[in-house]
Specification:
14 strands, alpha+beta, 760 residues, 5-stranded antiparallel sheet
């Protein structure tokens, strides 16, 4: 199949790049508006109990759970005439809009509510509102209102917050951060590629394919927004992944092409051979990454599903560009791929001879070969030391805690973040994000039972007040009449104000205590703590299946690639080790707050639960990039080794060690460079001002670097030495199955070889 593709591509080397350029222009134009159509929520299931509460409050109680907050601050105090005038103007402006419901303010609320809407210092007061529509519509409305109402006039400052405003700011910040990250990643990647290849022409090829992948990615995301909800966070990851994978895949193919030229092949034959061999690696790598990302579709929150369908499409686009467009460019360039070698003038400057790019590599003379030979000579201590190191680095993950993201994912310079800090410090009873809302849908039992229930809720630890139609309760006692509108013909709702962080373990414990209070009817719980609990429950139910599917997909793909049962198991174990270390580092840095000053984020004592899941799927798939690339060359050397005895090829443990050393010698420089390039692209996300995007970027960067250095060049060779010829073992029926359906660049020897080698 790959040979036929390569023959077709090399037959039309001019038409394909022209068609690709036209497609890139179309994708760029179509995808230019992708960011404007992406959404910033999607962390909870629409079927969750907390989601039902949000819909009931919006439909039946005029949006009693506000998603937009205006904080009015004045040194003169909230009761000063000028401050009051501003507050009333804001209230009237919001009430005049048809897309705003449930407007409340300190200056218009009944006494039972008004006291909670003024800060403990008396200098700030609040205006609450519910912005109608879906996530995109409410966030757009929040942006419009902020531009119209926020600012400082005559010493009175108006700032915005609430979930609609927070996610609007997150959306805006991520779009800006993406431009910054790409502005950093692309030029730095070019520098590294020049250092790897020497030739400016060869270095420009992977980067050109990477830019094509970015443009294609934007168009793919825009297309998906036409048919389903797509998370704004997919923008950062899929564009970064498209660039990183396109560069990786191109690097593999260009390197193999130059190697075949050095071996004496003409450009067309070298191109076909590069696609036949490195293209096979690219195909298997893309399949592994795509299957890992596809697993995200089993989760019922569109934040993760967005990465499933967008990620799979992006991987396919990057692989297709590397296999179809790049070979055509190589045919056109021919030997000119080695042109503009900057090493020539640099070496002349220092009086040294220039390297010959056409000189074949002698693996046994390379540093990589000597290093792997040393590792395999000390395989037991090396393996034990590295396994202990990775487990130690991963140990902080044993104390991981999870919580829903709020305004604290933004920097302290963001207005929504500043208002959130004021709400937590100065409004213990009015922080809508902290409160728990209890809905009794269809309840018509009167105020008596509701009063008893509200009284019971007020006794829970950390509850500052309970507002119900029967009255306002503080620690078991009724202190005021209840606000109007909390009961109607559809049922009732109760608002539980709390002093604890709803996304912390204390918030989880408080929610359990509230749920345990006997109720006069069927209850539904909403608010921050309930959202957090629902999200964790939804993710926890599907996580074991996701892990099993990824492991199974990886095992099957690597079996088809190698024909071995042992090597896929080894790859899964090694990937788990590198991820374990990365997860431990993320807990130590982001949950515990180490390096928070350096990276500029606010530690909250827990991690966003979707991030480790996303990291697991992405990193597990991308780590297979290097596993597949390394194994492809090791397997080539293994199949080329051995001696014929009685008509059967017999290979020994020494052949296995030699194949490992030669495979690493031929690929070590390339996959290490690929890892550095991918780390640059992923690491550029650390420049983001959204904390969990920083977490994702740093976590993937550490995983990729650890995987390509300590894992592939040291731990993997050590384990392959210890396993000897059993590396290549498979039962005879599976060996015959692989011979029939496994994709290979040439006909494999008789399947019985696998059995004989395994017995050696």
């Amino acid at each position: 199949m790959l040979i036929r593709i390569a023959q077709i591509v090399t037959r039309y080397p001019r038409a394909i790049p022209l068609a690709a350029a036209a497609l890139a222009i179309v994708c760029g134009v179509f995808g230019a508006t992708a960011a404007a159509h992406l959404k910033s929520a999607g962390f909870t299931s629409p079927d969750a109990e907390s989601s039902q509460v949000a819909r009931l409050l919006a439909d039946n109680f005029d949006g009693a759970a506000p998603n937009y907050v205006l904080l009015v601050s004045s040194d003169s105090g909230a009761d000063a005439p000028a401050t009051r005038a501003v507050g009333l103007h804001l209230t009237d402006t919001l009430r005049a809009r048809t897309d705003v419901k449930g407007v409340q303010s300190y200056w218009t609320a009944p006494p039972a509510v008004a006291s909670a809407l003024r800060s403990t210092s008396g200098k700030e007061a609040l205006v609450f509102a519910y912005l109608t529509g879906d996530d995109t519509q409410s966030q757009e409305t929040a942006g419009q209102l902020t531009e119209q109402l926020a600012g400082t006039t005559d010493g009175i400052t108006v700032r915005q917050s609430g979930t609609a405003a927070v996610f609007h700011d997150v959306n805006k910040q991520i779009t800006h951060d993406l431009a910054v990250a790409e502005g950093v990643a692309i030029p730095v990647s070019l520098i590294v590629l020049v250092l790897v290849f020497g030739s400016l022409i060869a270095a420009a090829l992977p980067l050109t394919v990477g830019i094509f992948a970015i443009l294609t990615t934007l168009a793919i995301l825009r297309m998906f927004t036409l048919i389903t909800d797509v998370s704004i966070y997919a923008l950062n990851m899929t564009t970064a992944m498209g660039l990183a994978l396109a560069i990786d895949y191109s690097l593999f193919i260009v390197s193999r092409y130059r190697e075949e030229l050095a071996n004496g092949l003409e450009p067309v034959a070298a191109t076909i051979r590069a696609v036949q061999t490195a293209g096979r690696t690219v195909l298997y790598s893309a399949l592994t990454v795509a299957l890992s990302l596809a697993v995200l579709s089993i989760f019922d929150i569109y934040f993760l599903r967005s990465f499933a369908y967008a990620g799979v499409a992006v991987v396919a686009a990057a692989a297709a560009a590397a296999i179809l467009i790049l070979p055509a460019a190589l045919v056109l360039l021919g030997h000119r791929v080695n042109s503009l070698d900057i090493r020539v003038p640099l070496r002349r400057l220092f009086g040294r001879s220039a390297p010959d790019p056409m000189r074949p590599l002698v693996p046994e003379q390379s540093w990589w070969y000597r290093m792997v030979t040393w590792v395999t000579g000390h395989s037991i201590p090396v393996a034990l030391l590295l396994v202990v190191l990775f487990l130690a680095l991963g140990s902080p993950f044993l104390s991981v805690k999870f919580g829903y993201p709020d305004d604290r994912v933004l920097p302290t310079t963001a207005a929504t973040r500043q208002v959130g800090d004021v709400l937590r410090a100065e409004f213990p009873a009015a922080n809508a994000g902290n409160n728990t809302t209890v809905v009794l849908d269809g309840y018509q039992g009167g105020p008596g039972p509701i009063g008893d229930y509200a009284k019971g809720l007020s006794k829970a630890d950390g509850v500052s007040a309970v507002l119900s139609s029967a009255g306002v309760y503080i620690k078991g006692g009724r202190v005021a009449n209840g606000p109007a509108g909390m009961a109607n013909g559809t049922g009732e709702y109760i608002n539980v104000a709390t002093r604890v962080d709803p996304f912390s373990p204390a918030g989880e414990a408080q929610l359990r205590e509230l749920r345990a209070v006997p109720a006069p009817g069927q209850t539904l719980f909403g608010g921050g703590a309930a959202i957090n609990a629902d999200a964790l429950d939804s993710l926890g139910k599907r996580l074991p299946l996701a892990i099993a599917l990824i492991a199974l997909a990886t095992f099957v793909v690597l079996f088809l690639f190698t024909g071995s049962l042992i090597l896929p198991l080894k790859a899964i174990v090694l990937n788990t080790l590198s991820l374990c270390a990365a997860f431990g580092a993320m807990v130590w840095i982001f949950q515990d707050g180490h390096l928070s000053g350096l990276l500029g984020f606010t530690p909250v004592g827990y991690m966003t639960p979707t991030m480790p899941i996303l990291m697991f799927c992405l990193a597990f798939g991308m780590s297979m990039d290097y596993e597949v690339f390394l194994l492809s060359r090791i397997r080539e050397e293994w199949l080329a080794s051995g001696r014929v005895a009685d008509g059967v090829v017999v290979r020994t443990a020494e052949d296995n060690v030699h194949a490992v050393a030669v495979g690493v010698a031929r690929t070590g420089r390339i996959f290490t460079a690929a890892a550095v390039l991918m780390a640059i692209v992923m690491g550029a996300m650390v420049t983001s001002k959204v904390s969990f995007i920083q977490l994702m970027g740093l976590g993937l960067t550490l995983t990729v670097l650890a995987d390509a250095t300590l894992i592939r060049t040291m731990l993997a060779p050590a384990l392959m030495k210890l396993m000897g010829t059993w590396n290549w073992w498979a039962p005879a029926p599976l060996a015959r199955l692989h011979a029939r359906i496994g994709l290979s660049e040439h006909a494999d020897p008789d399947p019985s070889e696998h059995v004989l080698a395994g017995r050696e």
